[in-house]
Amino acid sequence: MGLKESQNDDMIIGKKQQDNWYVKYEPKCLSQVAIHKRKLNDIVSEIKSILDGKSEHKIVLLTGPSGCSKSTVIKLIANELIPEYRKQNNNGFKNASKDACFTEYSTDDTTISPLYSFENFLESVKYLVGPNLQLILVEDLPNIFYPDIKLRFQNSLKKWINDDTRKNPPLVICLTECEIPALYDENSDFHRFTIEQKFISETVFDKEILNSPSVFRIRFNPINKTLITKVLKDIQSKEKLQLQKNDKLRGGKPLRAIQEIAGSCGDIRSAITNFQNWAMMPPHVNPAIHTRQEGVSYFHAVGKCVFGSQHANNDTGTMIDALIENYVSIHDPNLKLGVYENYHISKDLSISVASDILDIIGLSDIMGTSSNIANDEYCFRGVRERLKGGVDTESSHRKIKFPREWKMNKKRFSYRSEVDDFYLLNISKYKENFQKRDIDLYYSYYSPTIRKFQHFKKNYILSCLKSNPATSHNKIDSDIVTVDENTDYLDRLGGKIVGLDADSEMLKFENKYTDDSCMVFNKNKIFLSSSNFSSNKNEISKDLSADDDFDEFEIDKIIEDSDIEESGKEKTNNDHGIDTSKDGDEEDEDDYLIKMFSQAPSFQNDTMDQHMNSLSDSDIDILNNV
Amino acid sequence: MSLWVDKYRPSTLAELSHNEHVTNILKSLSENNPNDLPHLLLYGPNGSGKKTRTMCLLNSIFDSSVYRLKIDVRQFQVNSRKLELNVVSSPHHVEITPSDLGGSYDRVVIQELLKEIGQTEQVEFGSNISNTANNNSNSNKSPRFKVVIINDANSLSLDAQAALRRTMEKYSKNIRLFMLCDSLSSIISPIKSRVLLLRIPAPTNQEIVSILDSICFKQQVNIENKDNSCLLKIASFANGNLRLALLTLESMAMANNLTLKDTTSVIRPDWQVVLMKMSNKIIKERNVKCLIECRSMLYELLAHCIPADVILHDLTMFIISALANPTIIIGVVKNASIFDERLALGSKVIYHLEGFIANVMCEMEK
User: Fold this and answer.
1) Which of A236, A546, A612, B287 is the most exposed place for a label (fewest CB within 10 A)?
2) Nearest-neighbour CA in chain A from B140: distance (Å)
3) B166: domain range?
4) Is the domain of A369 the same as that of A430?
5) Is the distance from CB of B231 to CB of B213 less than 8 angstroms?
């Protein structure tokens, strides 16, 4: 192999004046581009309508694997369309038609900090409209592997989207999507679905951008065999000379080579390079064709394992061989999770088969670390073997789901942050030092439950005092006085326990749990623990737990909650409570109120009043009911 | 104010209510020359009062300043990774929970921390002694050490335990270790031989009832029916876990307006309710669809940090309690033990939890 390559190099050096074929035969007009006609029309009409101002889209997003003519198409479109539109707007001062038709963002300029370069670029191209009209093309992205830059990048795009003041030139973003083989790392367990591993639009942009009405997304597919064949044949006819020289034209050789290359991948750039390489070889060498390896994508791989192949005869062995060979990284622990998540969808399984499959997955999990290929193979082959046989026809339409594991981890992380906050709160406010395990098992449920009742009671008493200061009251329990909806957790930590379902779409995570907010959580923790947290506590817990916002609706819910079991009895109890209160100690009332407000300096009096006003209505209802 | 479980927590040895004999041992420890105090390892089930007793002991050895807690976030550098650990401390003791760190980093953290504390002699106590002389019977031999409480000691890695054993000897002049754990099984024998082992048994149901009763009296909770059948119900539900019993009592009292009747239902933690429902479903349905529904609940429980072994244990218990056929019960228990081992060996607990459920379903199909 090494020998072959060195010969190869010599040949290329010998003919240095010659360009690479993929540059030489770059399409000169739209009709030459290897792309499906309908897709091409889609893009052209979209750009036209944006230029005409008919479309509300501001950003066109072109996504797809490498070598499927994304940038070629958009550059050619720019060259064909932009001059026309310029002419329309040109008022005769300037002959602008010779200017470039598009401006490309580049990261080469090292004078600007990478943090601001994209923002500056967008700012500077805003004025390329009217007679100076250009298409704004972003192919090269700033280094978004840094969270800060990513955030700024996304924010500046959002700003662009929301900028309604003037008509901006159309912004086209070409994103070459790829999956990067994951190195197994135990420590990075918790952000599995990240930009480090899957460089796709879902990870590069956030949900807000992708779902924005101003963004128009066009997905490119790998180029099909017919189109590649056509292009290669075209080149073959133009390069007859070269081929003749290397004695490659005899015996239908080029056709066979073209077929082989075209069938091996959907990447036209790689196909042309390979063809050139093949053609340049001296006659006696017949090099093997190494096109860009076509990795099997994640869902494809899971699907192969779960559904099997269409050809029943090569059902298990060979197919898994191919899968293991082709999947970009078989070590990806997500793959096993994916099989686990989806094993049941191909057909109606009996419970015994399901338990067999789970046994296999479980055993492969305890076989050793994930970097050991044997246990993954055991898992795939075993599962495939158990699922052998036909697939239910309807089930093949069921979607493969991305494993829930990462979603669970995000949720778990946000729960952990809440627990940390809860822990600090209890140490600072109540001087109690809980253990995490006890919080998980008991306090996370009981403490909010109890506080919620106390809080309700407090509001109830406060409103009674307010509406009718003369009434005497049940002896107020000092416990309830310190409950404060702004600091205390009144809802179960981590939210109620409801099922955690897998999404059919990958992109359906709440923005709340994205990396950035995780960082905020951590900051709070440090900030909190640094010193006197009791004073900072209020504002922090407010943004940490928006759920704590208490409103009338919530109060109703509490009433319902407390009434759930024995509503009738509950009310008589209430009644009873108020009756006995008549002979309660009256002097205490004022003391309590004073104490209440002095102990809780964090109450802003007017907001508190508002609360009490809003509360008193609902409370009066209860009183009436009683 | 704090929850009842904390409000009525005893703070001196004299106030401790159940298991007199342990209390007596602690009393005698505190009356001896404090510098003779051995390292302690207190073990017993969750909610039996290990921590409470430790703090009471500290209170009697030092003074009530051990309850003046402050919290620091300490950072440790472990091969280019920064770890954070909450360290709770008072002037006389430091408290750490190594299981918060997770993973195998506890060794470094424990060593660093103990070294730091161990290398500083507690000089300031020497000068304080004249002031606090009347607190200590033998003032000349006042404690010249700091106490390090290690919570959840059974989650310490073997690595960390081995490191601990050397540190215990090296710095024993300045440090006393009080370790608390649920079970001794994962503590290595060199440690066991260097400490005074104290077993703290869970309170009996009768003891729990009397504690609950006294608190009800102080909180003016009305109990209808003086035979305390309601409290007994709570006690038997809590199964020796006093913390759980008190939390249940308070939430029940709050939900029912400070009146408890025989009919008042016990408020269980929500995750247990979920597991109960799940076990009923498993017994009734026994198909893949049910399995998939269980999966989403399992994931949710894991997201709430309910430990997988607790899920497995409680699920097994609920299933067993609903079954009558002894051969099936044996099968269920057998599966539980198999999958409990796999939980410990594997890396993704979800496979094994679902595997357990599937196997139990199979067992019942037979």
Assistant:
1) A546
2) 33
3) 4-123+142-199
4) no
5) yes
**Which distant-in-sequence residues (6+ apart) come within 8 Å of A150 by Cβ?**
A144, A195, A204
Note whether A188 and A40 are same-domain residues: yes
pLDDT (average), residues B82-105: 80
Considering only alpha carbons, which residue of chain A is nearest residue B256?
Answer: A570
ipTM exceeding cut-off 0.90 for this assembly: no
Distance CA B313, CA B302 (A): 14
Q: Report the DSSP beta bridge partners of residue B12.
A: none
Q: Which of B241, B260, B279 is the last residue of a domain?
A: B260
Beta-carbon separation of A453 and B291 below 8 A? no
48-107 in chain B: CB under 8 A from chain A? 51, 67, 69, 71-73, 81, 84, 86, 88, 95, 97, 99-100
Q: pLDDT category, B318, cuts 50, 70, 90?
A: very high
Question: Are A333 and A460 part of one and the same domain?
Answer: no
Please check whether residues B222 and B282 belong to one and the same domain: no
| Residue where a domain terminates, one of A219, A234, A255 | A219
CB-based contact (8 Å) between A526 and chain B? yes
Average pLDDT over residues B31-36: 79
Size of interface A-B (CB pairs under 8 A): 202
Q: Which residues of A50-81 are buried (b: 16+ CB within 10 A; e: fewer)?
A: bbeeebebbbbbbbbbbbbbbebbbbbbbbeb
A residues 363..402 contacting B (CB < 8 A)? 365-366, 369-370
Give the pLDDT confidence of B264-298 residue by residue, as tens digits. Answer: 788 888 899 999 999 999 988 888 888 888 988 89
B39-55: average pLDDT: 90
Compute CA distances A378 → A423, B61, B349, whole Å.
Answer: 44, 60, 19
With an 8 Å Cβ cutoff, is B28 touching chain A?
Answer: no
Cα separation, B229 vs B213, in Å, equals 11
User: Does B287 share its domain with B250?
Assistant: no
Q: Do B307 and B232 sit in the same domain of this protein?
A: no
Mark whether B187 and B98 lie in a shared domain.
yes
A307, A258: one domain? no
Q: Which residues contact B167 (CB under 8 A, 6 or more apart)?
A: B110, B111, B114, B115, B118, B175
Residue from B41, B47, B58 nearest B19 by CA: B47
Least confident of A179-183, A217-221, A241-245, B41-45: A179-183
pLDDT at A491 over 70: yes
**pTM to 2 decimal places:** 0.65
Number of domains making up chain A? 4
